Transketolase (Mesorhizobium sanjuanii), 1330 residues
Amino acid sequence: MISREQHDRMANAIRFLSMDAIEKANSGHPGLPMGAADVATVLFSRYLKVDPKTPLWPDRDRFVLSAGHGSMLLYSLLYLTGYEDMSIEDLRQFRQLGSKTAGHPEYGHAAGIETTTGPLGQGLANAVGMAIAERRLREEFGSELQDHFTYVLCGDGCLMEGVSQEAIALAGHLKLNRLVLFWDDNRITIDGAVSLADSTDQIMRFKAVRWNTIEIDGHDPDAIAAAIEAAQKSERPTFIACRTVIGFGAPNKAGTHKVHGSPLGVEEIAATRKALHWEAEAFVVPADILDDWRGAGSRSVAQRKAWEGRLAAAAADRKSEFTRRFAGTLPSDLDASITAYKKTLAGKPPVVATRKASEDVLEVINGALPEMLGGSADLTPSNNTKTSQMASITPTDFSGRYVHWGVREHGMAAAMNGIALHGGLIPYSGGFMIFSDYCRPSIRLAALMGVRVIHVLTHDSIGVGEDGPTHEPVEHMAALRAIPNLLMFRPADAVETAECWQMALKQRHRPSGLALSRQNLSPVRLSHEAQNLCARGAYELIAADEAKVSIFASGSEVELAVKAAADLTDKGIAARVVSVPCFELFAEQPAAYRASLIGNTPVKIAVEAAIRQGWDCFIGRDGDFVGMQSFGASGPGKDLFRHFGITVEAIVAVALGKLPPASVA
Amino acid sequence: MISREQHDRMANAIRFLSMDAIEKANSGHPGLPMGAADVATVLFSRYLKVDPKTPLWPDRDRFVLSAGHGSMLLYSLLYLTGYEDMSIEDLRQFRQLGSKTAGHPEYGHAAGIETTTGPLGQGLANAVGMAIAERRLREEFGSELQDHFTYVLCGDGCLMEGVSQEAIALAGHLKLNRLVLFWDDNRITIDGAVSLADSTDQIMRFKAVRWNTIEIDGHDPDAIAAAIEAAQKSERPTFIACRTVIGFGAPNKAGTHKVHGSPLGVEEIAATRKALHWEAEAFVVPADILDDWRGAGSRSVAQRKAWEGRLAAAAADRKSEFTRRFAGTLPSDLDASITAYKKTLAGKPPVVATRKASEDVLEVINGALPEMLGGSADLTPSNNTKTSQMASITPTDFSGRYVHWGVREHGMAAAMNGIALHGGLIPYSGGFMIFSDYCRPSIRLAALMGVRVIHVLTHDSIGVGEDGPTHEPVEHMAALRAIPNLLMFRPADAVETAECWQMALKQRHRPSGLALSRQNLSPVRLSHEAQNLCARGAYELIAADEAKVSIFASGSEVELAVKAAADLTDKGIAARVVSVPCFELFAEQPAAYRASLIGNTPVKIAVEAAIRQGWDCFIGRDGDFVGMQSFGASGPGKDLFRHFGITVEAIVAVALGKLPPASVA
C-alpha cells in the first residue's frame, strides 16, 4: 500500500524530472506533466499491468498519452518504473537530436511508447483501435491470452478535435469497456482559458455516446483509485474527468497558460522546489522514491509469468498462431495462394473495376489470413471490402472481422493505427479515395510510425462520373505519394490488383494505399506470370524494338496506353508501355533498372487521370503529360474522360505532334 | 395559409421532380429529397426569406443542404420557387456534363446554391461560418442591413463526421441563435441501419454543446412550422430532430437503404405515383401547384424592397462601405499602404521569422481593411495572427474581429469557407502548417468554389525544431501545391511576406495559404522596390553574368541560396538566385518569362526544406535538389538543418560536384 506521503513524493518525482528536463532543453511543456502527475502516479503505481523488463508482453495494458506535448510525463514514468532503455541520461537529452526523448513521444524510440502522439485527438482514437484489437483477439484467443485494459490521458485539445469525437462515438457504440479515458481537465489552452472557445458539458457529451462517466479531483489519489476501479468494472468505456491544476506546484504560474508550453525558468523551479519540499538536485530522484517506483514497476511480473505459462501450456497450433500473429509474420502459403489466384485469371482475364478485383483477391487473402480485420466508413457496397469471411462486429459480438466504422473516415484511420500498433491484426479500410483527405493526419502518422495498415481507396478519378468534382480525386495520388514511407498502389487490372495487395501485405513496417477504379477496366496482363511484376513498382508491359515513344501510365489509364501504343505501331511508330503501379517501390530499385526502364526514347508521355506533379521523374520536364489540370466535373464517366482529353486519341496526337515528321512512316 | 392538402402536393412536387430526374440520369440519391420534402416545403414556402429574382440580396436567409447527395431537393426547390436560372430543362439535365445540376450542389453553377456540398459535415460547418458572418455584420452595420437566419439540413452522415462536431461545439459556445439545423433522422446509411455504427443520443449530444433542441415528426407540417417558430425565438442555435422515412412515398423501398443512392426504377416510380395520387407526367408540375410554389417564392419581395429602401436611406459612407464589402472589392488605398510599409523596411530590414513579419504587415492590412476577420485554432501566440485591431469575439460581444476557434482546425477552415461565401468579410486563419492536413477537405472545397480565404500556416519546416516530426511539415508544400486553384506562398523575408499577403488579398476568387517560418530569417530583399516582385510567382533575386549555376529557393532557404551564390562567386563560379514564393503565380506567367527565368545554366539546384516533388518543373529531372527525403526529427532547428544537409555548404558542394573541373577557376 502506498501512503499519501509516498504518493505525493512519487508524483513530485515526475514533476521535477519534467521541469528539469524541459529547463535543460529550454523547450517543452511542463504544464501537463505537473498537472497530471497524480493521475499518472496512481495508474502506473497501482493499476497499470506492464512489466518494464518485458515491454512487448502482448497482454500488457496499453497506455496512450494522447496529449503528446506532455511527453516528459511519459518519459519520467518509463524511467521511474524501470524501463531499461530509458535512463536518466535519456531524460537529460530531452528534445535533442538523436535522443529517445523527442519533443513528442515517438513510437519506436523507446519501449513503453505505444504510439506517436502530438497531433491532438490521434492518441485517443489510436486507443479506441487498441481496445477494438484487444476485444477481437480476446474473442479469438480467449481471455487466458488477451485480457487487458487500454488507458488514455487526454487534454482539452484532444476533445475539441473532431477525430476524437468520431472515435468516442464508435467506442461507446461498440461498448469497449476495457477502455478508460482520463481527461486532464485543467481549463487552460494556449490562447488562454478553455472558456474562450468552448462551453461543452463534457460529462453530458460522453453520456450522449453511451460512456460511463466519473468526475473526480485529479489531485486526490483515493478518488483516482476509486474511479479506476469503478471503470474496470464498467460495461461501457469510462470517461474520468479529472479536475486538475495545470503546472501544479509552481507557486506563481500554476493554473495559467504560462506553464503550458514554455520552461518554467530557474526562479520558478526554485520556488516550486520550496513549495513542494523537494530538496534533490536536478535529475536526481531520492533513493527511497526511486525504490518505491521500481517496486511499483515490477508489480506485474508474476502476472506476466503466469501469462507466459498459459501460453506455453496452450495447444501447439494456438500457441504458434498467437506467436505468429504478434510477430507480424505472414503465413508461408500466402504467396502460393496469390500466385494460384493469378493463374485462375490467365486466359480469361475479367473486365472489372479494380475495386471489384480487389474484392476478389481479398476473398483469397481473408481466407488465408485470419489477422485481416476489414471495414468501411459506411461505403461497404461501393468499396467492395466485405468478403465472405467478414461477418460484422457488433457491440455484443466480436466474432466477426468487419467493422462498420460509420461515416468517420478520420476516426477509422486513426483507430486502424491503434489496431496495428496493438499487434495481432492487420487492419484494412474502405473509403472513397477523395476522403483520404479526411484521414490524412492519421495516414501520415502510420507512415511516420511505420505500421502496416492498408487503405482501400476506391473511386480513384473522374471515372467516378456523376457524383462530380467533390467526389473525384485529382490531386490525391500526388498528395499521397508526397507522404514519406507510404506506398501508394494504383493497379491497372485484376492481376495487378492481386500483385499490389500482395506487396502491401508484405510491408511489415509501412502503410499502403490502394487506389482503385469505380469503373470497369479492360485487362492489360493477359498471360500468366508467377512473378509479381508490380514488386518493382514499374515494369515494361509492352516492349518495342527501337521504340520512339515510351508511354508511362498507372491504373485505369494503362489500357489507354496499351491501345495508344497499338495505334502508333499501326502508324509505323514503335511505342512501348510502362505500367507504373507504385512510384515508391520503383524509386527503391537499382539505378540501372530505373534508367533502363525509363529509357531514352525521343518521346516520353505519362498518362494518369490526375495532375502531373511527380511524373517528371519519369518523363522529365520536357516530357508530355496526358491527365488533369483542374478539378473534375459531374457527368457520365466516359464523357468526362473525353471532356478532359484523357483518351487514346489524345495520347496518339501528343506522340505525333512531338515526333519529327521524318520519323513518321 | 397553405392547407394540408396543398402542402402535401407541394412536397410531392419535390418528390416527383427528384425521382424523375434521378431516373433520367440513371444516377443519384432519391432517398433524402423524398424523405425531407416536408421539412423543405414548410421552410421554403413559409419561412425562408429569399427572393428568387434577387438571389444575391445580402440580407437573404441562407439555406445549406449539408447532405449534398440530396441535391435534387435543392434543385427542385430552386425551380419551384422561381429562380430564373433553374429551368425544368436544367432538371432534365441532372448529372450531365456542363449542366447546372451537378451530382452534388456546386457553388457558382446556379443562383440559390449557397455552397458546394457533398463531402459530409462540410455544409453544416459552412453554415456555422455564415451565422458568424451574419452576427458580426449585424454588429457592424446594424439589424436594418443584416438580420437573417441560416438554415441547414443534414443527415446522419454529417453528424458522424468530426468536422461537424467541431462546428456545433463552436456554434453552441458562440450562441449563434440565428442558426437552425434540421436533422433528417431517417436512421439509414449506405451500409444499412444507422444502428450498425452509431448509438448516439443526438439530442443529448447537442444539449451538451448548449444548443436548443426540438424533436418532431418530420412529415407533420404543423410540427415543422412550430419548431421553426420556436427556433427563431431561441437564444441559442437550434437543432430540430426530424424523424423521417427515407424515400417517403415509395411503397416498396421507403425506409430502406435501397432508396439512398440509386434510382428507384420505373416500376417503383409508377407505384409511388399511385400511392401519392400523382397523375402528372415526368417533369410536369400541375399548374396549381406550380402557382402555389411560385407564390411562396415571391413571399419576401416586399421585405427585400424594404431592405433596399433602408440601404438607400443609409448614410453615404455606410451605404458605400456595405456595398463595397459585399462586392468583395478592396479599398483603393491598400496597395499604397503596403508599398509605404515596404518602404519602412528599406535600409533596415529586420531579422525576423516570417510569422512575425506576417503579424507586422497584418497590422497594416487589418488597419486598412475592416472586412478582415482573423482567428487561430488555439495557437494565437505562435501564429502571430492577433494584431492590435483584433479584439476577441465572445458569445455576448461580436464587436471584435478575432475568433478563438479552439483546437478545431477543420471546423475553422470549413467555417471560414462559410464566412467568405456569406460575403462582407475576408477570413484568415492561424494554424501550424502541419495541421493543414486536418483542414485539407475544407481547403480543397475553398479552391473548388473559388472563395477568398487565407490560411496563415506557421512553423513551416524542420525549423520547428524540438517539437519534432509530428509538427514538422515535409510533404505539405507539395501536397498543398497539388490542389488546383489554391495559391501557396512561401515568402523569404519581411518584404516578401508583405508582397505575398498583398497577392493573397487580391485573389477575389481563390484561396491562399502562407507558409511561414517559426525561426528568424535574414532579409534577402535589401533595397526598396515599389513593385510587387512576388506577383510573378518567381523572380531573379540575384543576377549573374554568364552564370554557371542557378539556385531556386523558397522561404527560409532563400537566405541559404544567397549565401551559397556568394560563396560560389568567391570561388569564381558565377551563380544566380531565383526566389520562388509562389509556384502557381509563376505557372501563369507568359512562356517567355518562365523560360528566361528558368534559364539554361549547366547547373540547376532547387533548395527547400521539404520534399522535391514539384520542383522538377524548375530544375528538370537532371537538376539537383537540396531538401528533405524523409520525415523530420526532434532537436534544435539549427541542428536539424545540418543533420538533414540543408546548408550553404551542401548547396555549394552540389554545384562544385556537378561542374566540369575546367569551369572551376
